[in-house]
Predict the 3D structure of the following.
Amino acid sequence: MKKLLIFLFLGAGFFLSAQEVGSFTDDRDGNVYSFVSYSIDVVDGSKSEIIWMSENLRYNIEKSRCYNNSESNCDDYGRQYIYSEAIKACPKGWHLPSDEEWYVLANIYGGISSAGEHLKNKSSLWKNGAGTNKSLFNANPNQPLKEHKFKNMPPPQPTAIFWSSTEKNSDYAWDWKLVSIWNKIQRWEGAKTEYNCVRCVKDN
């Protein structure tokens, strides 16, 4: 898929639709997940499809935790994983999206500068920064609010952070961040010891 799809999204005319096409059961623990299909009809007549989970992974694996360390939050927010667990947490037939696959998703909705608005859902949890959820990605905040270390900084904002599978180096991997007050989605280097959420992409 990878480089070919990026070329199609950036360089060719296409028609796009996001459609929830069903759900599947994780055989490991019985959790049921909905997913969304991004279908593309390219003007040359070819077709392509990318399938993402439309909710956060909840598989309980070593070195994972629930939002705010409260088990009751796992149903609503999924689990959070350090990088070494995130790369092996997805069910069979699914995988942790690469940095490139995140770029593809962002490019579907206008690129990094505007995709965040359409990946965030309409929940009041985003305070004044709720999204359109045009993508049906259903992103909710999934990180505890952290007070800034420096004075005269704006108050902390509801935030969602997701791992990619792509490493920067031995200590950092690329993650993708949504913030309440931003319309963009931010690509950033995350320490592999940090706890972030996981969305899985279906294998080709």
About this structure: DSSP finds five helices and eleven strands in the chain. Residues 54-144+155-202 form one domain. Residues 59 and 89 are 7 Å apart (CA to CA).
